[in-house]
Amino acid sequence: MDNGTRKAAAPAQAAAPARAAAGRPHRVVILALAGLLPFELGIPHRIFGRAASPEGHPLYEIVTCGVAPGPVRTDADFDIHVRHGPEALAGADTVVVPASYELGPVYEEGRLTDELKAALGNVRPGTRMVSICTGGYVLAAAGYLDGRPATTHWASAEHFQRLFPAVEVDPGVLFVDDGDVLTSAGVAAGVDLCLHIVRRDHGAAVANEVARRTVVPPHRDGGQAQYIQRPVPEPAQRATTTAARAWALARLHEPIRLRDLARQESMSVRTFTRRFREEVGVSPGRWLTRQRVERARHLLESTELSMDRVAADAGFGTAQSMRQHLQAALGVPPTVYRRTFRADRVPGGVPGGVPHA
Q1: CB burial class (10 A; 0-12, 13-18, 19+) of residue 20?
Q2: DSSP one-letter code for 207
Q3: Where along the chain do the CATH 1.10.10.60 domains lie?
Q4: Residues 6 or more apart in contact with residue 68 via CB below 8 angstroms
Q5: Which string of b and e fits 237-271 if b means at least 16 CB within 10 Å?
Q6: 164 DSSP 8-state letter
Q7: Quick one: angle between helices 284-302 and 242-249, nearest 10?
Q8: Residue 84 has what DSSP assignment?
Q9: Residue in 173, 258, 266, 175 with CA at minimum distance from that of residue 224
Q10: Measuring CA to CA, which residue among 273, 279, 274 is closest to residue 261?
Q11: pTM given for the model
Q12: Distance CA 261, CA 148 (A)
C-alpha cells in the first residue's frame, strides 16, 4: 500500500475482529515468551492503554500472560514476572505476540514447542491475532498465516519465507492488515500497527490522540525499504524533501504538480523523485494521495461538511474521485466511514469497525 502498509484484497476475506462483550473494554492479551524484547512488550501496553472514549473510559483492557505464570527471561539484563498463565488467552478479543529469541524449534524448524502449542490451544476461534516483528514466526508455525499475506523484520524476511513457504511474505511494508490476522515489521513498526488497530477500531481521532500523548506520528509514510542499510551519500547529495512535503501539506486543497514539489527544493523532477523515494519509501504521487485520504478522514469524522466540500478541501476535486480513493484505501465509501466514525457517535459506544481501514 502507498503508506507502507498492506491490507487484504477484499473485505469479504476478513472477519470482523471479536468484539468485547457489552459493558467491558476490548481485551488484549499479550503472550510474553522467553527471550522477549522489553520494548516490544511495552508497545501494546502503551498504545492500547492510552486509548479512551470521549468520556475518558478505557477502550481496551490489557493482560499479559506467559506459557506459565512466573518469571520470563528477556534479552536484557532483567527478567519480568508474569502473573497470568496461558488460560488468560481464552478470554482474549485480541492476542499480541511480540518477538523473542529463545524459541529454537520455531525459528529453526518452523515448529511450535509442545508448551507453546498447548498455550495457543486456549485461543478461541475468531480471536484477532497480532504479531510484532519476529513474533510472526509463532503465528506462522501455528498455521495462522497459511495462504495469507504477512510481514516481519526485513532482515528475517528471506529466512521466514523459506521456513514458511505457504505464507505470502511482503518484506517492504511496515505492517500487513489481513483482517483478523495482522503482522508488523521490526520493533517500532509495532507502534505503527497498534495505532492502526486503534484507528481501525475507534477512528482517527482516538488514534491521533494516543499518538500525540505518546509523542509519535499517527502514521509513517513508506515501508521498510527506507530503513535498510545503504551507503551514506556524500555531503553534497544530502538534500532532503522535507520543505516540499510541508509546502504540500499546507495546500492539499490545491492542485499540486510534481514539478511544483521539485521547485520547492530547487531540484529537477527526476532528482526530486529519486530523493523522495529514498526518504519516504513511496513516490510523491502516492504520498500525496495518502495525505489527502487522511485529510478526508479527519473532515468526515469531525465536521458536517457535505461530501462535495470534503472532497474539495482534501484536494480530490469531486465527491466521486474521493469515493474512489477512500474505497481503495479503506475498503468502504465515505458515507459508511462517516457513519461509523463520527466524533458524536453514541457516548461510550464501540463502533462496528471498518475492515482494512
Answers
A1: middle
A2: H
A3: 285-341
A4: 85, 86, 115
A5: eeeebeebbebbeeebeeebeeeebbebbebeeee
A6: -
A7: 40
A8: B
A9: 173
A10: 273
A11: 0.69
A12: 38
Calculated CA dihedral for residues 134, 184, 38, 24, nearest 10 degrees: -120
Looking at domain 285-341, does it have CATH number 1.10.150.110? no
- Cβ partners under 8 Å of residue 254, min gap 6: 315
**Residue range(s) in the chain whose domain bears CATH number 3.40.50.880:** 5-214
To 10 degrees, what angle do helices 307-314 and 334-341 make? Answer: 100
pLDDT 10s digit of each residue in the chain, 357 long?
A: 444 565 543 333 333 344 444 568 999 999 999 999 999 999 999 999 999 998 899 999 999 999 999 999 999 999 999 999 999 999 999 999 999 988 889 999 999 999 999 999 999 999 999 999 999 999 999 999 999 999 999 889 999 999 999 999 998 888 999 999 999 998 789 999 999 999 999 988 898 889 888 888 776 655 554 444 444 444 444 568 889 999 999 999 999 999 999 999 999 999 999 999 888 878 999 999 989 998 998 899 888 999 999 999 999 999 999 999 998 887 788 998 888 776 554 333 333 333 333
Do 103 and 138 touch, CB atoms closer than 8 A? yes
Superfamily of domain 5-214: Class I glutamine amidotransferase (GATase) domain (3.40.50.880)
